[in-house]
Design brief:
Blueprint (H helix, E strand, L loop, with lengths): L1 H10 L4 H28 L4 H48 L3 E6 L2 E5 L1 H7 L3 H4 L10 H9 L6 E6 L5 E10 L5 E8 L1 H15 L9 H18 L2 E9 L2 H8 L1 H15 L8 E6 L2 E9 L3 H21 L7 E8 L6 H17 L5 E3 L2 H18 L7 E10 L5 E12 L3 E3 L1 H11 L2 H17 L6 E6 L1 H5 L3 H12 L6 E6 L1 H4 L2 H13 L3 E7 L5 H7 L4 E4 L11 H17 L3 E3 L5 H9 L4 E2 L14 H4 L11
Parallel strand pairs: 9-10, 12-14, 14-15, 15-16, 16-17, 17-18, 18-19
Antiparallel strand pairs: 1-2, 1-5, 3-4, 4-5, 6-8, 6-9, 7-8, 11-12, 11-19, 12-13
Helix pairs in contact: 1-2, 2-3, 9-10, 10-11, 12-13, 13-14, 15-17, 17-19
Amino acid sequence: MVLSGFALTCSLRDSPASRTAGAMLLSCAVMLPHVVSLGVAGDGLVPAILGGQFAASLGFASLTLLVLAFTGLTLDGRSRRRREAQELMNSLADAAVEGIAICEGQRIVTVNTSLAEMIGRTPAALVGQPITEILPASVVARLDAGPHGQLVEAELRGADGEALPVDVIRRPLGNRPCHAVAVRDLRARRKAEQDIQFLAHHDTLTGLPNRATFRARLDEEIAAARAGGGLVAVLCLDLDRFKDVNDLYGHAMGDGLLQSLARWIAPVLGPRQMMARLGGDEFAILMPAVARPEEAGLLAEAILRVIREGNQRAGTGPILATSIGIALCPTDADDAQTLLNHADAALYCAKNHGRGVHRYFEPVLAAQIRDRRSLEHDLRHAVERGEFRIVYQPQMAIDTGIVVGFEALLRWQHPDRGNVPPDQFIPISEETGSILGIGEWVLRETCREAASWDKPLRIAVNVSAIQLHAPGFAELVHEVLFTTGLSPARLELEITETALVRDPVRALAALRRVKAMGVRIAMDDFGTGYSSLSNLRAFPFDKIKIDRSFIRAVDVNHETAAIMRAVLGLGRGLGLPVLAEGVETSAELAFLGSENCHEAQGYLLGRPGPIEQFSEHTSEAPGQGIAAA
């Protein structure tokens, strides 16, 4: 029995050597009674009767040892399985993100690592302690008073003493008088909620309040001004020529300018004043509790001054410039939307008066804004209402005096306004995007008309920058030519230089695709843009059109004549024909002829009009064949 006890002690150890020693000791304990009995019987020391009793005792002892051994092994296996299950449960609890504490009554039985690390304690230091070591007494009372599974929000003290927002839930464990307390850390969720709340009310690029936040604050200040008197001022501003910055320097540079504007203006504003980004490059500043209208002007001047100083510090790169429009409540408007509209109207006025200045709203501006909005609305529906018409102006070869083509010009006959000048509605259509529909209509109508002529004269159509950079422009030209049956060589698209600098890569790709169809490309208004020579080298032009400003009085103005000779020489050197626009006198035409200019266009040769006025140029005389232009 002593040897069996030693064997059991060794077998309970984890090392293989101890288990081997235990097995050997148990074997010796089993064998020892047999050895003793055989020795005694062999020496005759015990009578036969006593020998039988001794043998029975030894057998009983051996059987007892075997039963004890098997019992020990069974208990050991059960203990090992229980221990492994406990270790697995502890591992699962430690792997949980939430903090978990197992309690018996109000005493902690065990805690996982997450909970211990959350409050800056070790698991061993918490075992046996009351649950109030982890949770405040008020939270424990709420858990006791409520049903099992009730979720309770609380605050714990973290390792560094900071308040930790947590969710606490308690559930029973089977039929035992124990329960599990789960603690979930809410810091990440609260941070995400704060971020979402910030993004809902602020602009992501500049960190300024957004339009919704600005409008809510503006409504509050207007209500306060109505109750207590005083004025509320709104200052609207945007970046001058911001689109050009994006086109020339890229959107990353444009974003940097917006961030710089927000950063430079922030120190100028008072504690109750708010600057918000309304969208794009549009900003607004709220100035409550204004005693005199002049105070808004002083703030605008301070803003313009810090922008000038910021440009001086920045040195190289694009210049940040802005204009400011000011409107006051209740002087100019008594509601938020109207106040913003009037400040925007004042901003529009500031841009038309030199930029880099501020202007107050005036009543006449409201009428101008309403008129522009009305014009924008009518312009969107002018095509479907049939209000547009196309007039044609002939283009003549100077050496022969023969009309070789026409330029299509768009006219808008408004039912109420009458004839609206192109320089008034074309810029608006480009700003609003309606130029895409209008330009497509012009292209289809002119190609359909030109395809019906007896003579194969060229037709020139102006293409805006918006059309050129629109997706599918080359496909549109191909589809129109196919539908109308017009030969591609008879179509000439006129492109201005400003349309090229917006996105040179895309413009070049579009022009090459159109050029591959056989369509001719002409540079319109040559000399009025910038980078003209590099554009002639980079883009596949077939003709140069000189702006009318270089033609006027060319026969008597020596400087103008010198410029014309230089341009004509450039055209000859590049192998490009030159067309002079705006020829109005015979002397101008004679000068162009003497300098070997190829083609001319102007009132002297024919005013724009319906194509029926030029039927003698588009139709063949009876018996006359079709001559090539």
